Amino acid sequence: MSKIVSIEITHHRLPLDPAFKASWDGRPRRHFDATIVRVRDDEGREGIGSGDLMKGFEGHEDLFIGQDPRHLERHYEVLSHINFHYGRCWPMDLALWDLSGKVTGEPVWRMLGGRASRVRLYASSGVLREPSAMADQAERYIEEGFPAMKVRFSSSAGGRGGWREDVKALEAIRARVGDRLELMVDCNQGWRMPWDTTLSWTFKDALTVARELERLGVYWMEEPLHRSDRKGMKELKQATSLRIAGGEMTRELYEFRDIIEERAFDVVQPDVALVGGITGCRRLVYQAREAGVQFTPHSWTNGIGVLANAHLSAGVGDVAWLEYPYDNPEWSEARRDYPMASPLKHEAGWLDLGEAPGLGIVLDEERLKATRV
Fold first, then answer.
1. Does residue 148 lie in a domain region?
2. Do 273 and 52 contact (CB within 8 A), yes or no?
3. Which pLDDT score is estimated for 47?
4. Distance from CA of residue 105 to its chain's centroid?
5. Domain co-membership, 95 together with 115
6. How far apart are CA 181 and CA 74, in angstroms?
7. pLDDT band at 316, cuts 50/70/90?
8. Reading across the β-sheet that carries 4-20, which strands appear in turn?
9. Range of the domain at 23
C-alpha cells in the first residue's frame, strides 16, 4: 500500500516585462506568482498540484502523512474542513489525484470515467485592447483553430470607459470574423480586486447590456451581476435569450448545489484549483447534467490548473469546451506555464491529454529554483 511520507509547498514569482494588464484588475501585473504542491509517497513517487496559494495549510500536514493517497474522498473531507476554518487548499487535491494516477499507472481522465482523452478549447482573452486590435486577435484565434473566443469587458471605470466602449470592441470582432467564431462575454461584475470599490451593475444595467449582446449573437454572458444576486441572475436568464454563466470564484460546493437546483445559471464555471478540487467538482458535473445545466470550468491559473480542469472535463465527457487562458503577447503559453518543463500546446483548438499516469505534469526544476520566493 502506498503511503504519503512528505508534503512540500513552494512559492515562485516570474517577473513580467512587458506587464500584463488584466481586464479584471486595471493595475498592471509585473509578476506572476505560482504555488507548487508536492506530495510524495514511500516508493518515491511525487504528485503535483498548483493553482491557489495554499494559505492555511501549514500545520495540517499530519492529517495526510501516513495515509494512502488513493483515499481521495477521505482527503476531500479534510480539505473541506480546512477550507471552512482557514483557506482554500484545493491544489492539494490535485496533487493527490496526480499521485494516485502514478500509483495506479493511469491518467486521471481515465480514472474519472474515461469518456475522452482530449478536450475542445475556447480561447480566453484577458487584455482590454482597442476594437481593431481585438478583431486582429480574433482572426489569429481562428487561424489557430479555436472554435470560440471569450471577450472581456471592463471590471470598473478604469477599463475602456464603460460597457458601451466594450460593445464597440465586440462589434469590431463580429464585423471582422462574422459567424466563424462563437463569442462569449465576461462582464466582470461578479467580484472585485481588493482595492476596487466600483459597484457592480444593477439588474437594469445588465439587461440593457444583454440586449446589445443578443444583437451580436453572443453565446453566453458571464457574471453580469454581483455574485450574491442569485435571484437577479435567474431573472436575467429568463429575460434574455443569452445563456447566463458564472461561479468561477464561488467558494463552497453547496452554493453550486443551490445554483443548480434553482436553475439560476445556464452555465456553471467552478475551477478545481479554487473550489472542491477534482473530487468535489466531479459531484457538480453530475448534478448539473441531471438539471440540464451546462458545466464548463474556469481555468485561469497556470498550466497545472488548466490540466487538472481538462482531465475532469475529458473524463466525464460532458464539457462542450474548456477555458484556455491565452492572449499573446501579454499572456502567452510560456508565461502562463512557466513552472512546467514545456508549456501546454493546443492543436487546432484541442488539448490532448495522452496516456501519462496522473495529470501528466513535468516541472522545470531549474526555472522553479530561479523563481523561488
1. yes
2. yes
3. 98
4. 26
5. no
6. 43
7. very high
8. 4-20, 29-41, 46-50
9. 4-105+364-371
Per-residue pLDDT for 319 more than 80? yes
d(CA 313, CA 315): 6
Instruction: Please give the average per-residue pLDDT across 119-148, as a whole number.
Output: 97
User: Which pLDDT score, from 0 to 100, does residue 340 have?
Assistant: 98
Extended strands (E) in the chain? 4-20, 29-41, 46-50, 118-124, 148-152, 182-186, 220-222, 243-246, 267-268, 294-295, 322-325, 350-352
Residue 147, all three cell numbers: 472554435
242 and 326 part of one domain: yes
3-state secondary structure of 14: strand
Integer Cα distance of 371 and 367 in angstroms:
6
A 10 A CB-CB count for 21 gives: 16
Whether residue 359 lies inside any domain: the answer is no
Q: Which residue has the cell 491565452?
A: 326
Residue 157 pLDDT level (bands cut at 50, 70, 90): low
Q: How much is the CA Rg of the chain, to the nearest whole Å?
A: 20
d(CA 242, CA 14): 38
C-alpha cell at 346: 493546443
156 part of a folded domain: yes
- pTM value? 0.97
Q: What is the pLDDT of residues 50-82, one digit of tens each?
A: 999 999 999 999 999 999 999 999 999 999 999
Q: How far apart are CA 64 and CA 98, in angstroms?
A: 15
- The length of the chain is 373
Q: Kind of pairing, strands 118-124 and 29-41?
A: unpaired
Q: CA nearest 55: which of 24, 93, 83?
A: 83
Residue 358 lies in a domain: no
Q: Is 317 left (phi over 0), alpha (psi -120 to 50) or beta?
A: left
Q: What is the CATH number of the domain that holds 23?
A: 3.30.390.10
C-alpha span between 293 and 341 (Å, rounded) = 37
Cα separations in angstroms, 62 against 5, 43, 102, 222, 263: 10, 19, 22, 40, 40
With H, G, I as helix, E, B as strand and everything else as coil, classify residue 187. Answer: coil
> Cα–Cα distance between 353 and 205 in angstroms, integer?
41
